[in-house]
Amino acid sequence: MNIHDTISGLRAGLKHAGRVVLVPTMGNLHDGHISLMQQARAHGNSVLVSIFVNRLQFRPGEDFEKYPRTFAQDCARLSAAGVDHLFAPCEAEMYPTPQQYYVEPPADQINILEGEFRPGHFRGVTTVVLKLFNIAQPQVALFGKKDYQQMMVLSNMTRDLALPIEIVAAETVRAADGLALSSRNGFLSAQERAEAPRLHRELARVREAIINGERNYVRLERLAMTELQANGWQPNYVAIRRQLDLQPPQAGDKALVVLGAAMLGGTRLIDNLEV
After folding, report:
1. In which band, very low, low, confident or very high, does the pLDDT at 251 lie, cut at 50, 70 and 90?
2. Mean of the pLDDT values across residues 122-129?
3. Active site residues
4. In this structure, are residues 106 and 63 in contact, taking their beta carbons and an 8 Å threshold?
5. What is the number of other CB atoms lying within 10 angstroms of the CB of residue 226?
6. pLDDT tens for residues 152-173?
């Protein structure tokens, strides 16, 4: 595996790489990430992974400083997974001067759900991903469905800016008990880890009710929130939305997604299930 820590080095290394598939990450890799790398192989000649903890997408008081940095372990996992290139820049390489130009996604896409509880988050995500796209110029980029709203925003950005990049959405990888794999799962205590799959179970219960014909979406959302609260969670939202734009469903909408976010102790977990 070729490791690049400069933009010029990466560009030189990719000069004859053929069809490049980019998988952006912030490191602290788990099996869900590795699944993305394995899927990436089917979409191109060279798999490129980036590791960069992007300060722009963290609000003050969030976990930027304590976000796990496990670079040596990550390199070993990526090499074993057959990744061809790793781009691991320092902050000064990505932001040699304070960032002045940003991507500003539409308000109706980023002021809901995650954006309501993490103002500015998607501005930081879209800005760094566009920068990675410009640096690496991949033909394909893979993103996991666990961050459903992020995937939608980045897909829309790519389309609206006419970027010559195919966006591939990869299914969420879960532990045997249903918990979506996430770097933040490492913050859970043993007791919290045992409780954590409840979020997935509640979303699955809502999904099943919809499949069985229930259309009182507000009631389903409220019941799921109440159940989480009764078991020690602090839910931000449980929401039934259209897959296309994450707006509330209208009569006749078929392609839906159930999304949830909640604090369990000091850890914020998110998940979703398509209907």
Report:
1. confident
2. 97
3. 33
4. no
5. 13
6. 999 999 999 999 999 999 999 9
Measure the CA dihedral 207/274/59/236, to 10°: -10
Contact predicate 149/118, CB 8 Å: no
Unique residue bearing structure tokens 């930027």: 64
Q: At what angle do helices 121-136 and 148-160 cross, to 10 degrees?
A: 50
d(CA 158, CA 168): 12
Record the pTM: 0.92
Taking Cα atoms as reference points, which of 138, 139, 143 lies closest to residue 153?
143
Q: Work out whether the CA dihedral 125, 118, 178, 176 comes out positive or negative.
A: positive
Ordered domains of the chain (ranges, CATH)? 2-170 (3.40.50.620), 183-274 (3.30.1300.10)
When pLDDT is cut at 50, 70 and 90, the band that residue 211 belongs to is: very high
E strand or H helix that includes residue 258:
strand 256-264
Residues making up the chain, counted from first to last = 275
Query: Residue 60: is its pLDDT beyond 90?
Result: no
